[in-house]
Amino acid sequence: MGLDCGGKMGQFILVIINTVFLLMGLGLFIPGIVLQTNIDFVSDEIKPVLDQVSVTGIALGDVVKNLGIGFIIVGVFVFLVAVLGLMGACCKSKCLLTIYAIIVLLILLSQIVVVILWFTMQNQLDSVVRDELSTSLKNNFREDSLNGTNQLSNGWNYIFLTLKCCGVNAVTAGNAGDFANTPNWTKGSKKIPTSCCVGVTASNYTAPPTCTDNVAAGTYYTSGCYDALINKFDTSKYSSVFLGVGVTIIIIEILAMLASICICRGQED
């Protein structure tokens, strides 16, 4: 059945929109791969520590480890939806167009919910993750070693070495910081562990007392590990870009639904 003028316009718009979505789906593979590269610091030694923190019931280690994979899965989903839209537009299939419109509507509603949750819960989420990391350090840090009997202590020391940080919150010169509240660590004269000291490596795990005992400025990592972990995924400098892209996608999704309706109505006429 032929299309009227409105149907043809809808078909043209839908083909253009889904061609763009097709490319976007493929494009999501790139940040997915980049994220997987950035999280290579989550080694088998570090993951048990991150697993002590849960985000909406999911272990933080699993969230971080699979973030890039999530982007790739979303990219595949967007790609398949775009193919469905293109097939519906080119074949003028009411069935495919109806399924496509419903999927796009569900995606649109999901995006709105996610954005609302993000802005309302971001500060709360930050506080929960920081507090749970602090609790884990307080309760589980027992040894200044990378291969001791306590797996979580080993993991914390690997975090300090890998992220070049010390404690959950930043340590100030001359103070023990979070390590003042680690009752299970028999620290002796030490205020901070060897892994917090600049220049220490896994193969050369030694540090002078000026760092571990005196916490002299310039001898230890001044960044807290919560901030160091967040910086691994810092997207604040791209926030305006993400906002613009998000609004554009929402507008395109609305146009896609309207275009699919126009094609269906154009056939009926």
Word description of this protein:
- This protein has 269 residues and is an all-alpha fold.
- The chain contains nine helices and two strands, in the order αααββαααααα.
- A two-stranded antiparallel sheet has the order 1-2.
- β1 and β2 (58-59) form a beta hairpin.
- The N and C termini lie close together (10 Å).
> Spatial order of the strands in the main sheet?
1-2
DSSP strand count: 2
Which regions have little confidence, pLDDT < 50, spanning 5+ residues?
Answer: none
How would a textbook summarize the main sheet?
A: 2 strands, antiparallel
DSSP strand (E) fraction? under 5%
End-to-end CA span: 10 Å
Coarse morphology: elongated
What percentage of residues falls in helices of 4 or more residues?
A: 55-70%
From the alpha-carbon coordinates, what is the Rg to the nearest angstrom?
26 Å
H/E element sequence: HHHEEHHHHHH
List key phrases describing it:
269 residues; two-stranded antiparallel ribbon
Quick synopsis:
The protein has nine helices and two strands; from the N terminus they run H-H-H-E-E-H-H-H-H-H-H.
Topology, element by element:
Elements: H1 5-27, H2 29-38, H3 47-50, E1 54-55, E2 58-59, H4 60-91, H5 94-140, H6 151-163, H7 209-212, H8 225-231, H9 239-268
Antiparallel strand pairs: 1-2
